[in-house]
Specification:
This protein is mostly helical. The N and C termini lie far apart (77 Å). The model has no long low-confidence stretch (mean pLDDT 84).
C-alpha cells in the first residue's frame, strides 16, 4: 500500500469520526449553541485583550449576520417565487382549512451552528498572525456594523410581516377534540 493510499485512508477515518461526533451532538441544540456562544466570547476576549484584529472581528460579525439572515429566511423566497399569489405564503397556512406545511429555512439550524463554529475557529486562528492585524479605527467599524445590523433586521422583519411567516416555533401545537367540555377538570362517566 502506497503512502498516498494510507494518507487517504487516514483522512477518511478522521472525516468519519468527525461526522460521527456531529451526528451524536445533533439532538443537543441548547448545549451546542451554548458552546458556540462560549467560543465566540473567548474569541472576543482574545481580541479585547490583544487590542487588535478588528478587521477580522468585523468580517466575522458580517459573516454571522449573513448566517442569521439565512436562518430567518424561508428556503423559497416568496418575493422571487413565480407561482406566488398575493394572498398566500407558499408553505404556511393562513386560514384554518389550509394544510400545515412547516417553515423550511434557507440555512438549517445545525448548518448555521456548524458554520458559526468553523468561522469562529478560523477567525481565532487568524488572530495568531500579525499580518492580519491591520490598524483601523475600531469605533467606526463597530458603528457601521450596528447600523448594518439594524437596517438588515428592519428589512427582514418587514419581509416577515409582508409575507406573513414566523421563523420560530415554540413546541408542538396541542390539539383538543371538539367534544371536550369547557371544564377540563371534570371527567365524564
Amino acid at each position: 500500500m502506497s503512502t498516498s493510499d494510507r494518507s487517504f485512508i487516514f483522512l477518511e477515518r478522521i472525516s468519519q469520526r468527525q461526522q460521527k461526533f456531529l451526528d451524536d451532538i445533533t439532538p443537543y441544540t441548547f448545549a451546542r449553541w451554548l458552546c458556540a456562544a462560549f467560543f465566540i466570547l473567548t474569541f472576543l476576549i482574545r481580541v479585547f485583550v490583544s487590542q487588535g484584529w478588528y478587521i477580522v472581528t468585523y468580517a466575522l460579525g458580517i459573516y454571522h449576520l449573513n448566517l442569521l439572515i439565512g436562518f430567518l429566511s424561508p428556503k423559497i423566497d416568496p418575493a422571487f417565487s413565480e407561482d406566488f399569489e398575493e394572498d398566500q405564503m407558499p408553505g404556511l397556512p393562513t386560514r384554518q382549512d389550509e394544510e400545515f406545511r412547516p417553515f423550511i429555512r434557507r440555512v438549517p439550524e445545525f448548518k448555521c451552528w456548524w458554520a458559526v463554529m468553523r468561522s469562529t475557529a478560523f477567525a481565532t486562528f487568524l488572530t495568531w498572525f500579525e499580518v492580519f492585524d491591520i490598524p483601523v479605527f475600531w469605533p467606526i467599524l463597530l458603528l457601521y456594523f450596528i447600523v448594518l445590523f439594524c437596517l438588515t433586521m428592519k428589512r427582514q422583519i418587514k419581509h416577515m410581516i409582508k409575507y406573513r411567516y414566523i421563523p420560530f416555533t415554540w413546541g408542538k401545537p396541542k390539539y383538543q377534540s371538539a367534544d371536550l367540555s369547557a371544564d377540563t377538570n371534570t371527567v365524564k362517566r
